[in-house]
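Researcher: I'm comparing several assemblies side by side, and this is the next one on my list. It has 609 residues spread over two chains. Same procedure as the others: predict the full complex and return the structure.
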Amino acid sequence: MLKKEGEIRIPSGCAISGIIDKKRNRFNGSDIIKSIALMHDRSNGLGGGFAGYGIYPQYKDFFALHIFYDNETIKHKTEDFLNAHFEIESAGNIPTRKVSSIANKPLIWRYFVQPRIYKVKDLCMDEKEFTARCVIRINREFDGAYVFSSGKNMGAFKGVGYPEDIGDFFMLENYEGYIWTAHGRFPTNTPGWWGGAHPFTMLDWSIVHNGEISSYDANRRFVEMYGYNCALQTDTEVITYLLDLLVRKHNLPIEKALQILVAPFWNEIEKENPEKAKELKALRTVYASALINGPFSILVGYEDGLIALNDRIKLRSMVMAEKGNKTFFASEESAIRVICPEPENIYHPAGGEPIVVKLEAKI
Amino acid sequence: MKNINIEVGLRTAYDINKEMKKAAESNDTITLKNVLGQRFIGSGISKEIKIKIYGVPGNDLGAYMDGPEIEVFSNVQDAIGNTMNKGSIIVHGSCGDTAGYAMRGGEIFIKENVGYRVGIHMKEYLDMKPAIVIGGTAGDFLGEYMAGGVIILLGLNASKKQPLTGKFCGTGIHGGAIYVNGTIESHKLGKELKPVKMEQKDISLIENYIKQYRKYFKYEDEIKTDKFSKYMAVDTNPYKKMYIKY
């Protein structure tokens, strides 16, 4: 039985890394593994994970559900639910290889699905909302089943172990994507379990995070009012839901959504011109509970690109660099240099300064 | 002068530091090649040797260092000179956050820019006066909780786009001095930091460090001292109100 977050406490940083090719040229998972492996000492073997975008071109119109199951019984029960709500185009276990350091693996399955149209229509929803609700429901009500990836043409791969071992376990060299992110975990407040590893995802959002969200409970209460359920009792998942809520449901442009998460200090707002100050003040007031506090550096993958964000007073490290069409982010410069020996434009984003690297439009 | 070359590559920090400690016994200089993220380089060596580093060393470079002179021919990462006691670190590039964290003695020279919280809680005692000299600009919280020593910010590449310092300078400072080549706008000063008058002895002190900076980095242009300003703590015990008096 997997121990859930919150059942025990392990007092103990983390490492994050990300690569994007703006022109959507795909590359396999080897580089991201190499980058995160260099920061081995930042994690402690209790969690590692990756997200890749553009990895399922043959199924790009289907939601790719990656699910952990504790046992066959819960798998059958969950599959009945999936069958009732989705057309399943393809199903199978996610290929893994034996890695000596990876033990106690759950059943790991993948389904490419489309929501059943009549159900979506009955509920007057769009297919994304329908899928999101199904994912939330499985994670809340199907004890022992955990959907850890649910986007289109993207996927998360994660587990308990050092990230380089997890990457090897999932054979990420066989996948090609135009965005990759990675996380090495050093859990501070909660145990390492398969579901608790990063990235945390919702539809095509994926987040890897180094730090701790002190405002977690305020943020959790806020998103739960909109139907999300923080089933994992870990701080990072709430950021995923905040972004999904602000961008997908409230239709805010990504830049505005990020401004809400790291709202400027009141004295900074006062220095702006009246019109801008009014807007910032309105955003801070309406979305007071969406402000994220505490030390963090995060990388957010989504369908349009890759975002890097630090807390407002930069309590965690983050460095970025460029080379050709690629932009690299990592907790440490050396983790970029190991895969790109001569990077250009090395830059340390300031606290609360969102960096958004967008993919060029699809051809 | 006896030198030993050590090829580093992807070897572990543990391995490298162990080899370095042994090498330090019988060499005057150690040259590390292709360094890539290995941590704690230079710590635990109590001998005045020279360590030359090619490649980007990992966090906590020179942590608890007690004697060596480290020269790095690239950028460095976070927390260099963490609690260092003696010796110097010369960086031909930029550095990440928290350089000189709780530094007790010795000198750090950085050719270009530094990140957040540089000089956080550095301290001094009698003749142990640590110094951090920065050629470029600094991020927020420069000299946060500073208790002693000096920070000298030359800002040679400062511009409108790349301001001399960030916000919250000297938050919680209660000792030591920060010298900057220019002035810090009042809204960027932490509550515990205030400007004080520059005196002749301050100029002499800065000139001495500028001389060293120019020598280490072969900086040829003149660096004038007439625009420098000095900042010090408002109070040696800024948070006393938060504690109960007995």
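Model: For your comparison table: The radius of gyration of chain A is 19 Å.
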